[in-house]
Amino acid sequence: MLIESKQLACKIEHATLLNDISFTVAQGDYLSIVGPNGSGKSTLIRCLMGILQPSAGELILKGQPLHSYPRRALARQISYVPQAVQTQSLAFTVLDFVRMARYAYHHPFSEWQPSDEAAVQQALEITHTTDFICRQCNTLSGGELQRVMIASALAQQSPLMLLDEPTTFLDPHHQVAVHQLLQTLNQQHGMTIIEVTHDINHASQHSQHILALHQGQMMWHGQASEFMEAQRLHDLYQQDFIFVRHPQTGRLLALADES
């Protein structure tokens, strides 16, 4: 197992944000975390990043407690792509921004190595961002910037990538482009992916596993192909759904019942 969560709980002051969360993620897995607003999805991501410390339970990374990793060592194991970035704060060229992702392999006076340049160039090529390496990040479109953020995460060369709603605010074309890129990283490059998403159809079609959270509790964890079930979705979202089959994959798609 790459990640193990054992009865994880997280409290801030008197508020319980997560409680009794247990699951495993194998190397090469694609796990989508779904659930309504306020269910604890982003809190779980922050715990996996080591930003929030569990109040109970434990997170295990490659057989060791996650909290035992120094920050640079943790950055070599886990990369992160945020939901949205304030572009005005990114006054860097794309190339410089992606190069900064190599901080985990350097100290204040260490020198840039050929391995660093190779990692950066590979990340740019995989994400098809080489054409605008000289552009300022704050001049990019939403879709272009998201690909650069993924390139930056790739340059860390970590086995696990965390993404917090990576297609929020993107139009359908760029949503598909980001989804296809994540599929390529997972299936062709062996990247383990944990993605927070509100798109349950994307999660059920393209993930291997789904973890459903509700009010800080784990409601369901299992194979993505088994997730679409009427009572389960109603309990999760307090909403009825209509189901149709995808014409290409044959898997169920859920449409909110507005009647």
UniProtKB/TrEMBL annotation:
Entry keywords, A to Z: ATP-binding, Nucleotide-binding, Translocase, Transport
Pfam family, one: ABC_tran
One function term, GO molecular function aspect: ATP binding
Record keyword Transport present: yes
Organism domain of life: Bacteria
Sequence ranges assigned to domain ABC transporter in this UniProt record: 3-240
Function: Part of the ABC transporter complex HmuTUV involved in hemin import. Responsible for energy coupling to the transport system.
Family the UniProt entry places it in: Belongs to the ABC transporter superfamily.
Protein name: ABC transporter ATPase
Upper taxonomic lineage: Bacteria, Pseudomonadati, Pseudomonadota, Gammaproteobacteria, Thiotrichales
